[in-house]
Design goal:
By secondary structure, the protein is an alpha/beta fold. The chain has a domain of 152 residues: 3-Layer(aba) Sandwich (Rossmann fold), CATH 3.40.50. Helices cover 27% and strands 26% of the residues. The protein has 6 helices and 9 strands, in the order H-H-E-E-H-E-H-E-H-E-E-H-E-E-E. Helix 4 links the parallel strand 3 and strand 4. Helix 1 packs antiparallel against helix 2. The N terminus is likely disordered. Bound molecules: S-adenosylmethionine (SAM). S-adenosylmethionine binds next to strand 2, helix 4 and strand 4.
Length: 227
C-alpha cells in the first residue's frame, strides 16, 4: 500500500524502525487502553519516521510530540491513536481533519476511511504534507490551506471531524458540517491545558462527552484563538 517505505535515513533503515514501531504500539498505545484493532494495525505499519524532519527520525517512535518546523509539532503517538479511536471510523466514512501538520494523522485516517479532507493554516506545512502523502501513495487525501475553524463546506457533510489544535470552544461551523450520527473530536480549553471533547450529531442536537486532559498547540482562526 505504501510503495516507497524503504528510504534509508541517517537514523537507520526501514528494518531498524520496525521494532521501535511495534514497541510504540504495545507500550505507549495498547498498554494505555486503546483497543481498536484497526487503529493499532495501521500504527504498526505506518512509517512515522517519514513524517518528521530527517534529523528527528531517530526519535519518531518516542512517547512525545516532535517539532516539524514553522513552530508546529507532530502529536504524541498515543494522542493520535486515542483521537482516531474516538472517531469510531468505518471504511466508507468521509473525514475532515483540521491541522494537517506533518500529514501523519491524515495518513492514519486515510488508511481507515474512504476519503480525507485536511486543512492546514500554514502554507509551507500544507505543501510539504501534500507532497509527502503523494509520495507515500495516498490518493484519498485532499490537503487544503486555510482557516480550518470554518471547516470545509465545499466537501461537507463529514462522518467524522478531528481537530488537532486546541480552541477555546468547539467551532460551530464544524458541528454543522457533521452528517447525522457524525463524530467530532477536538481539544478544548485554555491555552495552557485542555481536555479532549467528543461531539456526536443526533439530528439537530449534539451530544457531548469529555475524554482525557491534553496539551495542544493553539487553533488560530475566526472560531479559535487570535494569534
Ligand atoms: N495532525 C498533525 C500531524 O499529524 O502532524 C499535527 C497537528 S499540529 C499539533 C497542529 C496544526 O494545526 C499545526 O500545523 C497548525 O499550523 C495547525 N493549525 C492551527 N490553527 C489552524 C487553523 N485555524 N486551521 C488549520 N490549521 C490550523
Amino acid at each position: 500500500m505504501w510503495p516507497r517505505f524503504s528510504r534509508e535515513t541517517s537514523a537507520g533503515t526501514e528494518d531498524d524502525f520496525i521494532a521501535d514501531r511495534q514497541a510504540m504500539v504495545d507500550h505507549q498505545i495498547a498498554d494505555r487502553g486503546v483497543r481498536d484493532p484497526r487503529v493499532l494495525g495501521v500504527m504498526r505499519t505506518l512509517p512515522r519516521h517519514r513524517f518528521v524532519p530527517e534529523s528527528a527520525a531517530a526519535y519518531a517512535y518516542q512517547d512525545r510530540p516532535l517539532e516539524i518546523g514553522s513552530g508546529q509539532t507532530i502529536s504524541q503517538p498515543y494522542i493520535v491513536a486515542l483521537m482516531t479511536e474516538l472517531l469510531d471510523l468505518a471504511p466508507d466514512d468521509r473525514v475532515l481533519e483540521i491541522g494537517t501538520g506533518s500529514g501523519y494523522q491524515a495518513a492514519v485516517l486515510a488508511t481507515l476511511a474512504k476519503e480525507v479532507v485536511t486543512v492546514e493554516r500554514c502554507e509551507e506545512l500544507g505543501e510539504v504534507a501534500r507532497e509527502r502523502l503523494k509520495e507515500l501513495g495516498f490518493d484519498n487525501v485532499r490537503v487544503l490551506v486555510g482557516d480550518g475553524t470554518q471547516g470545509c463546506p465545499q466537501y461537507a457533510p463529514y462522518d467524522a471531524i478531528v481537530v488537532t489544535a486546541s480552541g477555546p470552544y468547539v467551532p460551530d461551523s464544524l458541528r454543522h458540517q457533521l452528517s447525522d450520527g457524525g463524530r467530532l473530536v477536538c481539544p478544548v480549553g485554555p491555552r495552557e491545558a485542555q481536555r479532549l471533547v467528543k461531539v456526536v450529531r443526533l439530528g439537530t442536537t449534539f451530544a457531548e462527552s469529555e475524554s482525557i486532559g491534553c496539551v495542544f498547540v493553539p487553533l488560530i482562526g475566526k472560531e479559535g484563538w487570535t494569534e
